[in-house]
From TrEMBL, chain A:
The lineage of its organism: Bacteria, Pseudomonadati, Bacteroidota, Flavobacteriia, Flavobacteriales. This is TIGR03915 family putative DNA repair protein. Residues 86-253 form the DUF4130 domain. It comes from the Bacteria. InterPro entries: DNA_repair_put, DUF4130. It comes from Winogradskyella echinorum. Pfam families: DUF4130. NCBIfam families: SAM_7_link_chp.
TrEMBL record, chain B:
Signal peptide: none annotated. It comes from the Bacteria. SUPFAM superfamilies: Radical SAM enzymes, RuvA domain 2-like. It comes from Winogradskyella echinorum. Its cofactor is [4Fe-4S] cluster. This is DNA modification/repair radical SAM protein. Keywords: Iron, Iron-sulfur, Metal-binding, S-adenosyl-L-methionine.
Length: 257, 420
């Protein structure tokens, strides 16, 4: 049988629906592609998979019964990496898991298991980085606002952390790269899309939008950051490994004076 | 809060606090209650890193840098001609809350110079913690310094609000202490430490019977020693460390390479290098004792009083004990796997897991992330290729250093990260 090309809508449920389709039709050579990445022409024979929650749930339930909790969350993490071709590795992993009686998620000598573990680790690292590097600024509407540009799509992973921690303040964490954000209204977290005014700059704390004291706290924090450093132990290589330069843009302590 | 005034105080009082290297904010189990602010249940987060590569997770400040004592190694000492300042209790509370809300920090680490006397000082530290917990409903992390000589009652109260308490021994030997901090008595350090230890034990007992027993210092106690200020050797340092771990159930001992801050001729002079590599070797030793199943005396003893600087302490131990090797990766128990140079605990667990599926060879190990350049001389795996020459310790050491210079340096600084 010829290879098949399946296109899904980019969501996790969509991907799982595609996996369902693969198993249902016992497909062998198959490529699963996110519709945003689809290369026209190359896949003129592509089939669009409709996202069906119950099918997705059935696959996910199966996966969970086959793997340890860590194994299944690694799959989800790896999916959120949005890495090109990650679907193929995920599919290979899931196929391997279903064909094995015992749980395979610790079989690091299997190439897909190892690869997924590695990708999941990078996504996990990005999740931790965002939990660390989010910097809220208090807006005139009393909302603690933060903008980020993570390497991977980690908003779904950090929501719980921030909700638990900042239960008594309204906050927004906005992923500028992916154009959506989380909004906590003192009760629940919602996914939001925002339109920013033309003169709004993400790196600037403009008094038109932010509270009067906001800049002062940033200044205090920056001072603190500077004076807690021990000059005679300076080690910029180590510093940059921990706080890679691509994250500096939105860190209050790294803003120019 | 007057911005300018606060700004100046913050500069002075954070500058004076920075020599305390402990910045851990993990190990507590304080969850957000009643929709308050903060949560200290998980692993502590490093929100930033200083340019010297250390984790910034807590707002680390002194309440005041006025001090009646004159410890030679301390910038805050009475005889030092510096600017002095003191925070009001409310100022510290406001700063902490505002930094926390912006996701700058995990909480507060509050220490202090001793003004008037030990209890007067301790009382104020406790007041800050109490206000944060009871008035602000703050559930973030609080680390308070136990002031040497503070009363049992105050130490008891401190533990009800703080997650961690620490009292820094600073000088590893009694003789050194006498020489450099003549105002301080060894007993004064021990007293609050003992009280806190007993309270923690009592809390655990009561907790078994009454579920709602209020938490007492859930992240335990720690201490710090300054390295290289009083001529002590590594054996003495780790002996003291081992003693405090065992006798006072400490969670952590920190080692802080002495940063010269004075022309006092009892001390290394300004401009002499901070012993960063030595500090790192001590942390590695500490790690081996706590997580790798090594006994203190296996690493340091009467015959080996100082750690090698050019190789890590596990490799040193292995080279002194070649008769224990090679270890078979596919059959050895956890204890011996953990003793192979180049194998971290993470790799050990990965090996234990992976080998249930198939016998492991070099290729598998490389993928798992084992530092084979070191490990290869000490192990065999599912391969006919292994080190067959009967190499001496000297020879192995030479080969490792020569073949892996850059990679070795890399892993060295990697391990530095571990201890942020
Ligand atoms: S008592 Fe503490 S603050 Fe005062 S000089 Fe000694 S070490 Fe420094």
């Amino acid at each position: 049988m010829q290879g098949r090309n399946l296109i899904y809508d980019g969501t996790f449920d969509g991907f799982l629906s595609a996996v369902f389709f693969v198993f249902e039709h016992k497909l062998r050579a198959v490529v699963i592609q996110n519709k945003f990445e689809m290369q026209l022409g190359l896949f003129s024979d592509a089939e669009t998979i409709i996202t069906e929650e119950d099918k997705a749930n059935r696959v996910w339930k199966g996966v969970k019964s086959k793997l340890s909790p860590k194994g299944s969350y690694q799959l989800y993490y790896a999916f959120l990496s949005e890495q090109k071709g990650v679907e193929a590795i995920l599919l290979d992993y899931i196929t391997y898991a279903f064909s094995n009686a015992q749980s395979v998620d610790k079989d690091y000598s299997h190439p897909s298991v190892l690869k997924i573990a590695q990708i999941a680790k990078s996504v996990g690292r990005e999740k931790h980085r965002m939990e660390a590097f989010v910097r809220f600024r208090l807006t005139k509407d009393d909302i603690y606002f933060s903008n980020i540009e993570p390497d991977f799509n980690v908003l779904p992973l950090i929501s719980k952390h921030f909700k638990r921690r900042y239960a008594d303040q309204k906050w927004v964490i906005y992923d500028i790269k992916r154009g959506y954000g989380l909004y906590y209204d003192l009760d629940k977290v919602e996914i939001i899309n925002m339109e920013f005014p033309a003169d709004f700059k993400f790196t600037k704390t403009d008094s038109e939008f932010f509270q009067e004291h906001e800049l002062e706290f940033q200044k205090l924090w920056k001072d603190y950051f500077k004076s807690t450093n021990i000059e005679s132990r300076k080690n910029m290589k180590l510093h940059i490994r921990h706080v890679p330069k691509r994250y500096w843009k939105y860190l209050s302590e790294k803003q120019p004076n | 809060m007057s911005f300018q005034r606060t700004q100046e105080k913050l500069k002075i009082l954070s500058d004076a606090a920075k020599y305390d290297v402990s910045c851990s904010s993990s190990g507590s189990k304080r969850a957000n209650t009643n929709k308050g602010i903060g949560d200290a249940t998980g692993m502590g987060i490093c929100h930033s890193y200083t340019e010297d590569g250390r984790c910034v997770s807590l707002l680390k400040i002194l309440l005041t840098n006025y001090c009646i004592f004159d410890c030679a190694y301390c910038v805050t000492r009475k005889s030092n001609d510096i600017k002095r300042a003191a925070f009001k209790v409310q100022e510290v509370v406001d700063l902490t809350i505002n930094f926390y809300r912006r996701n700058y920090i995990e909480g507060l680490f509050l220490s202090s110079g001793i003004f008037k006397n030990a209890d007067y000082t301790m009382e104020r530290l406790v007041a800050v913690a109490k206000k944060l917990r009871t008035e602000e409903n703050f559930n973030g992390y609080i680390h308070l310094k136990s002031i040497p000589g503070a009363s049992d009652e105050l130490m008891r109260e401190a533990g009800l609000y703080a997650d961690r308490l620490s009292v820094n021994i600073e000088i590893p030997t009694k003789d050194g202490l006498k020489k450099l901090a003549p105002d301080k008595k060894h007993e004064d350090f021990i007293k609050p430490m003992k009280k806190v230890k007993n309270e923690i034990i009592q809390f655990k007992e009561e907790k078994k019977i009454i579920k709602s027993t209020p938490k007492y210092a859930p992240a335990g106690q720690s201490t710090q020693m300054i390295i290289g200020a009083s001529g002590e050797n590594d054996f003495q340092i780790m002996q003291t460390s081992n003693y405090f771990y065992k006798s006072y159930n400490l969670k952590r001992v920190y080692y802080s390479g002495y940063v010269p801050i004075s022309y006092d001729n009892r001390l290394p002079q300004i401009g002499s290098a901070v012993p960063i590599l030595r500090e790192n070797r001590l942390y590695q030793t500490d790690w081996l004792m706590r997580f790798y199943g090594f006994e203190f005396s296996e690493i340091l003893n009467e015959r080996n009083q100082n750690l090698d600087l050019d190789i890590d302490p596990k490799l040193s131990w292995a080279l002194r004990n070649l008769h224990e090797f090679p270890v078979d990766i596919n059959s050895a128990d956890k204890r011996m796997l953990a003793r192979i140079p180049g194998l971290g605990m993470k790799s050990v667990y990965k090996i234990l897991n992976a080998r249930r599926f198939r016998k492991l060879n070099w290729e598998h190990l490389k993928k798992i992330g084992v530092a084979l350049n070191r490990a290869q001389y000490f192990m065999i795996c599912d391969s006919s290729k292994f080190e067959k020459r009967d190499l001496t310790s000297e020879k192995i050491k030479g080969l490792i250093l020569q073949n892996s210079k850059s990679k070795y340096q890399q892993s060295l600084s990697n391990q530095l990260n571990l201890f942020g």
